[in-house]
Design a protein that fits this description.
Elements lengths: L4 H12 L18 E6 L4 H12 L22 E5 L13 E7 L5 H8 L5 E5 L2 E7 L7 E7 L6 H19 L9 H14 L1 E2 L7 E6 L2 E7 L4 E10 L7 H15 L8 E3 L8 E8 L2 E12 L5 E11 L4 E10 L6 H12 L2 E2 L1
């Protein structure tokens, strides 16, 4: 199928100019990826905070704190921030992920009363807890988890694992939050990519198209403090990627061919035992099952390094593989929200 890029872009701009706006009380959510607003009754807030921060610090296998890597300390897989229901107004209309903690049957003001009137889309019964999952309660693209628990210490590990799984899976389904949603520039680039390669994906307006040819589409953002790239490689599915060594070699091949630094050294997957490398070839992304390589890269002969994630999509109808790779260098900065954005972008891929 062929696309008239100019006509499609003009139509998209026309729609955006029609003046229609969502009602002010039901707009898409804002916020950073992997950020959770946790609300509970005041008397339980410190206890809830202690339990969450103790347990979720264990769940991120990639985001090691690189500036002190020898300590083997990791960023959490979810970043929590906290509020009392009576003192924070309107936050529930902005947050993509919300946790309502009802400890020892203690209700949480307007949050509990609103959820009482709605049906959960899913309920999970665990040891010492029950989770109810709600969709789009106060805003679009929002997941709310109502947790009923006694906060028994020996059961909280299981609770934390269930919370992490539900939040991360639902966030992938929701896509980019409102403040990272594509704008007209993104739409025009998406149409160009779709016309040239036959697939599309959502990306934040901070990214710009850097380079493209038949086997590479490359977007990036660079500031004085950090840079991050989306590096997409297209190649024949005769190149079988079914284990971590092949996945690593494939990444090194493309970065060796296209990614050059000012020192003229290679940009390769780190071989250091300090930085973890993981491989999973059964990751479910929408209707696709893909292989995922996660790890750290290094620019040889320099101190520049950072985490990456590489998704391998098998486009069977066109007998090719699309390797969607996000990598970043952000020294002395929290990396969780940047890194999670790569996952949300990859989850938005559609083949046309």
């Amino acid at each position: 199928m062929k696309f008239n890029t100019a006509s499609l872009l003009a139509f998209a701009i026309y729609l955006s100019a029609c003046g229609y706006k969502e009602p002010a009380d039901f707009l898409p959510t804002e916020g950073s990826p992997a950020e959770v607003f946790a609300v509970t009754h005041e008397e339980n807030q410190e206890t809830v905070k202690t339990h969450l921060e103790k347990n979720f610090n264990r769940f991120s296998p990639i985001l090691i704190k690189a500036e002190q890597a020898e300590k083997q300390e990791f960023e959490p897989s979810l970043q929590f921030w906290y509020g009392r229901p009576e003192s924070i107004e309107g936050i529930e209309k902005q947050s993509p992920l919300i946790l309502v903690m009802e400890v020892n049957d203690t209700k949480v003001g307007k949050y509990s009363s609103t959820l009482d009137k709605r049906d959960a889309v899913k309920t999970i019964n665990g040891r010492g807890f029950q989770l109810h999952i709600y969709k789009d309660v106060w805003a679009k693209n929002q997941t709310v988890i109502r947790c009923e628990t006694k906060l028994l210490t020996e059961d909280f590990k299981s609770l934390a694992e269930s919370l992490e799984k539900e939040f991360l899976e639902n966030e992938l389904q929701q896509g980019l939050p409102g403040n990272l949603m594509p704008n007209e520039y993104c739409d025009s680039i998406s149409l160009l990519i779709q016309g040239k390669y036959g697939f599309s994906f959502a990306f934040p307006p901070q990214f710009r198209l850097e380079f493209s040819n038949p086997e590479v589409a490359w977007l990036w953002q660079e500031t004085s403090r950090f840079y991050r790239h989306v590096f997409i490689n297209i190649f024949s599915d005769s190149v079988l990627i079914d284990n971590p060594e092949k996945a690593k070699a494939n990444r090194n091949y493309f970065t060796g061919k296209y990614v050059k630094n000012t020192e003229g050294t290679r940009v390769v997957v780190s071989e250091s035992k300090i930085f973890p490398l993981t491989w999973d070839n059964q990751v479910k992304i929408g209707k696709y099952t893909v292989g995922v390589l996660r790890g750290w890269y290094t620019e040889e002969g320099t101190f520049r390094r950072g985490p990456f994630v590489r998704y391998f999509f098998h486009d069977k109808s066109n007998k090719r593989i699309i390797a969607f790779d996000g990598f970043m260098h952000a020294p002395d900065m929290p990396k969780l929200s940047f890194y999670r954005t790569f996952d949300l972008m990859a989850a938005s891929i559609k083949f046309h």
